[in-house]
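Subgroup meeting minutes
Present: P.N., E.W., G.H.
Scribe: E.W.

1. P.N. recapped why we're keeping a running log of single-chain structure predictions: easier to compare across weeks, and new members can see raw inputs and outputs side by side.
2. G.H. added today's entry (208 aa).
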Amino acid sequence: MSPTEIHMAVICDWPLLQLGVDQAIRAQPDLRIRHLATTVDDLVCDPDKVKIVLLITPQNSDHVTSHQVARLHRQGHAVIVLSTSQAQSDAVLCIKAGARGYLSRRTDDAELVTAIRAVASGRDYLGASLAGRSIPAPPPHLTGRERQILHLVAGGATDREIATRLNITENTVHTHLERLRRKSGSRRRADLTRLALEYGIFVNDSTE
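Output recorded in log:
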């Protein structure tokens, strides 16, 4: 496996559309599809190993799609939505739910690949149909380790206890906490606990 490869999953319930997207992505030497699924429920993969999820749901309203985006986002995935809708309000719903990219039905294979690479590099991507429009910034993307630390913070663990539980140094814990504070704009521990709740990270969840 090349360290420069971008590993991704595709969720699409139209077999012919899924095949076309699969062919477009496989033509790129730096992109690799690790999972193909027809629904969000069918997708089981580690977000630290599969960087991007391309969510294509042409039969769903974007209200339904936004709930699916929120679910994938809480799991730690970076989501790109390929939608049949042209409405700015639908894009806003998905982006507020955590989508890192949003593309319309007019998207061609070149723009799709550009969007995947942009999101994989940590940037957001809005399709050409949304260029120049006022769209809110998506919530910050959290790594698997950051989610583990948020879980322990929400449970009241000290930095030393977090280090022991995760078998890392306290300095590493401090580094992760500082990154979380920069991403969220939250400085206090109580704010990080609220952030954990917003991401659906609850005290009784497993950190494994």
